[in-house]
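Design job #97: recover the sequence.
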């Protein structure tokens, strides 16, 4: 951000974007709910809402970029942006903590209760006498009604490759950041482009992993608690990788246009923070979903 106007706090002109955001989000939610109730048949409001969200993001962030490039922001605004980004990442930490908490609760408590532990012998004997608490759960308590997967997804193969890809992407985005701080434009663009490419490769391999899980392992969203927690955690993470890769791509375009300097590049820093957060979450997934 520009460090001019130290004694003033920039207040933007009245904007249409908050009301556009309200309409876009409401339309998207109503369309998504109607799509679910229709058994997957796409409701017209869903694509309309998504288009409105795209319009909102391009317009609102574009306005922020224009204000920043015009030198309207000062150190106080910069601190506000940093605090806001930290709170956003904290909210994302709590988002994934809830899902990891579900996995922990199922594996530590529910599995034990169904198997007769913790003074629940009668529950086990009366409801599921043949149930064994083994994770990953391939044989559900009522396997005739909800068939479990044929095999579990192990940590080797595509999961291990994707782990290496994300760890490497953390290195490349850090190198790009150091290049930016030294005003080395060419290395910045090269390493940032490499990070974007690694993010896309990760997403490609994740799609391949899902296809393999459905076709070869019988591991689906309908295969019981193991399948639902697997796709819930990895799917939401994949969504965040998609968002992060898109943001990195925007940063790449802005870097090519020469928008950043060594002392004015918080947008890049914010995206780098988010990308490192996504990488850390994946390490947790790799350990607790694939490995243990």
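Job complete. Output follows.
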């Amino acid at each position: 951000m520009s460090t001019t106007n130290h004694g003033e706090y920039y207040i933007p002109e009245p904007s249409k974007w908050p009301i556009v955001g309200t309409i876009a989000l409401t339309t998207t939610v109503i369309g998504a709910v109607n799509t679910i109730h229709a058994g997957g048949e796409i409701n017209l409001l869903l694509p309309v809402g998504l288009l409105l969200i795209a319009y909102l993001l391009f317009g609102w962030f574009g306005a922020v970029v224009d204000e920043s490039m015009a030198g309207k922001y000062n150190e106080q605004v910069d601190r506000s942006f940093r605090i806001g980004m930290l709170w956003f990442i904290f909210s994302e930490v709590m988002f994934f903590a809830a899902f990891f908490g579900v996995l922990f609760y199922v594996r530590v408590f529910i599995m034990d209760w169904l198997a007769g532990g913790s003074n629940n012998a009668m529950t086990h004997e009366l409801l599921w006498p043949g149930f064994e608490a083994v994770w990953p759960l391939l044989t559900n308590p009522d396997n005739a009604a909800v068939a479990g997967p044929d095999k579990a997804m192990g940590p080797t193969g595509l999961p291990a490759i994707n782990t290496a890809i994300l760890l490497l992407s953390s290195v490349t985005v850090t190198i790009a950041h150091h290049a930016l701080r030294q005003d080395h434009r060419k290395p910045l663009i090269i390493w940032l482009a490499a990070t974007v490419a690694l993010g896309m490769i990760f997403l490609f391999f994740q799609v391949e992993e899902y296809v393999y899980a459905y076709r070869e392992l019988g591991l689906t969203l309908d295969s019981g608690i193991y399948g639902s927690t697997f796709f819930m955690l990895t799917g939401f993470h994949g969504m965040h990788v998609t968002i992060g890769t898109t943001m990195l791509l925007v940063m790449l375009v802005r870097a090519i246009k020469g928008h950043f300097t060594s002392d004015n590049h918080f947008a890049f820093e914010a995206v780098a923070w988010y990308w490192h957060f996504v990488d850390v979450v994946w390490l947790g997934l790799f350990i607790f979903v694939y490995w243990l």
